[in-house]
Amino acid sequence: MLDIKFxxxxxxxxxxxxxxxxxxxxIDLDLLFSLHSQKSELRTKxxxxxxxxxxxxKEQNIEKGKQLKEEASELESKLSAIDKQFLQIMLLIPxxxxxxxxxxxxESGNKVVRHWGEIPKFNFEPKAHWxxxxxxxxIDNERAAKVSxxxxxFLKGDIVRLQYALMQFGMEILTNEDTLKTIAEEAGLEVxxxxxxxxxxxxxxxxxxxxxxxxxxxxxxxxxxxDEDDVYLAGSAEHTLGAIHMDEILDEKEMPVRYVAYSxxxxxxxxxxxxxxxxxxxxxxxxxxxxxxxxxxxxxREEQDFLVAIxxxxxxxxxxxxQVVAICTGDMGIPDHRQIDIDAWMPxxxxxxxxxxxxxxxxxxxxxxxTRVKREGGNEFVHxxxxxxxxxxxxxxxxxxxxxxxGSIKIPEVLQKYVGKDRIIKISL
Length: 429
Prior knowledge:
The protein is an alpha+beta fold. It has two domains: 4-90, Helix Hairpins, CATH 1.10.287; 107-424, Bira Bifunctional Protein, Domain 2 (BirA Bifunctional Protein, domain 2, 2-Layer Sandwich), CATH 3.30.930. The chain has 14 helices and 17 strands. The chain has helices spanning 4-9, 11-20, 29-58, 62-90, 129-136, 141-148, 158-174, 177-187, 207-213, 238-241, 300-317, 364-369, 393-401, 416-419, and strands at residues 111-116, 139-140, 154-155, 197-199, 204-205, 232-233, 249-251, 257-266, 285-295, 322-326, 338-346, 351-362, 372-375, 378-381, 383-390, 409-410, 423-424. β11 and β12 form a beta hairpin. α3 packs antiparallel against α4 (62-90) and α8 crosses α11.
């Protein structure tokens, strides 16, 4: 949520953000400003009436006190109704995109910033991961569909060990300050190299908390467990991690606060009907390792650049060709100030596919969550970042880039110590 003072002083910028982010629903800024004025007037009147009530109590004027109590109750009722209407509009207003965010209607407006690695050349026709998975017996969507429906899978054999290897590899990187220092130096960044705190988060989140995060919509893409439980299955770890310090004041000496969480994620993929139906690119259930950080406002852009540098570091260690992409206004989320994605080259699909994303929200989420930092000049809203480290998508990139002519899959050298072997072959039941 933006500051109402900022909205008033920068109306044109806000209106441009509303337009470029294709915000759903009509946002009437004139009505918003009018409601804000009414709130201020009612609050002043209520304060005056309460002051008169205190005076009446001192004078033991019971009749006047009773009259003023009724007047205060009426003012509180009006204030509550106006405040609710005011908040409804405020929650619709998107975050302001950064100056370097491309303006565009959808993913066609995204801009490739840089490439790394050479596209591999094969002396055979490379296969897509779904064919590799079926032939090796390590991806079984057909049996999973019988049990759970479409967009679910059974991963089997060494592909499971490879997925856990990615998570172990990632955890070691994020908890090792020496490694983080190396990453910062390679990226030319002067940032804190404070390690990440591992977290095992809940997989459920309350609707009110989801709404405060600004991630509840689109509701149709989330699994709601019904009125009896009144919780959603989390679509990603940042949907719970982001709220970990809700209604808290952090100490400036502790900043930045960094977490890494490994969790199961649930998404309906409501907007992906007929898209990526084969393989494991778009699943209703998948595992993901997510980074979430809270930092001082003046450090948040550098913090995001550091998160992207970490993502690039792991991709280079895995020797996976990739491109870094600046996401445009029409393709980014409502809370996002700046979004950077990484797409890995998928030989079997002859295309780049997104494997990582990083979102800088500035104070948009923290203002809604009331997460602040105590500073000499007073309390400030922290700035927040979240970013993927590993999901099942880098697993796909490994399968397709490391495939061999005989159908086996080589395991990247940095992961072999975790898996205990150097290649994946057909499993025998």
